[in-house]
Predict the 3D structure of the following.
Amino acid sequence: MNPPHPNHDPIIKTHDQLKNTVSQVVNAQTITDIHTHLFSPPFGELLLWGIDELLTYHYLIAEVFRKVNLSYHDFWAMTKSQQAELIWQTLFIENSPVSEACRGVVTTLNELGLDVGSRNLKDYRAYFADTTVEDFIDTVFDRSNVSKVVMTNDPFDPAEAPVWGSGDTGDTRFEAALRMDVLINNYEDTAYQHLRGLGYDVDPYLSSKKSYKEVRRFLEMWIQRMNPKYMAVSLPPDFQYPHDGVLGRLFDNCILPISREFNVPFALMIGVKRAVNPQLKMAGDGTGKADLTSLETLLRENQDNKFLVTLLSRENQHELCVIGRKFKNLMIFGCWWFMNNPSIIEEITRERIELLGLSVIPQHSDARILDQLIYKWKHSRQIIADVLIEKYKSLIDVKWTLTQSEIERDVNNLFGGNFERFLKGV
Ligand code: FIX
Ligand code: ZN
């Protein structure tokens, strides 16, 4: 191939040029956000947005209890707007909002054009009262430059069922992911009964060929209904594979065969300890280091299956990159939850790029409140751009010719291309 022509595709020569080009390309790149907890408008109240939701995000609930002298009972007895006021007063007025979750609210308000200097919660509420959800979706997608978000769709959730039943999920920028936590983590307690109630002939221990067939029938029905980008589950740090129990039987006889047959990857989110402090409700989950031997076995024994994986423990991240070098059926994604902090995103992104080049999905937002797309992506774009600048710099310093379109190609892959190609199986 001929070298790039400088007039059509500028060669990046100086550090300033590099910094400006990468920043501009990263900011201009639209994003496919592969894991969120957002919903399209037909899902009604499941789609959270606005200042009171933003302030009562479970990350901030965990933080407010560290500063306020209030019982769990009294906090949960408050209305949402009272909780929001308490969090605003405690974490933003009586203390400076420097944690990542607090800073996120400030970034979001600022990006929405609100005066963060005024610290006037009433004005912020008035802004949201004056807009419709549809308009606000457009504003948020525009400000965050996100083009698609993948929802988290629970086939066992009665609040979602009518929308899936209607066949109209509205705005096509919201795509589905078939979440299987209830099926996998609660089969014996709730999923089994639920399935029987729907007419699936399953037994309580999932111990017969008939039951496998029935679970597969259930999954097929939901795949046809949702057209999900992937199936997903969150798992505790002590997740084991192979597994001599319901989880193992579900994996081997139901989920992995269906995942292959329908070419729908299986996303594993490993490392969550649910309800470490149940009094905090959703804010009460913790993290633990996983033994990744199980993941290696799963990848090795199921090389015709595609897996998306993100891990919740910082200590597991390097090992995951090494596993990524061994298995092309693994796509590593995102800096999940407690990993989604600037210092850790920077470390993980650098580690991934050094070990795996540009063959990863560096980030997802995990946004629960629509507005959060703005800050989560603004903060992450900046960090990913900085890491890329450092890596490209080491190339141009030794006279590697790097062009703008090559940077655009790389950034496009990181923020959407790698995901699409992985789904297609190329
Ligand atoms: O399991 C998950 O998808 C987690 O991301 C959530 O359950 C968690 O509550 C969260 O919001 C993390 O960001
Ligand atoms: Zn999530």
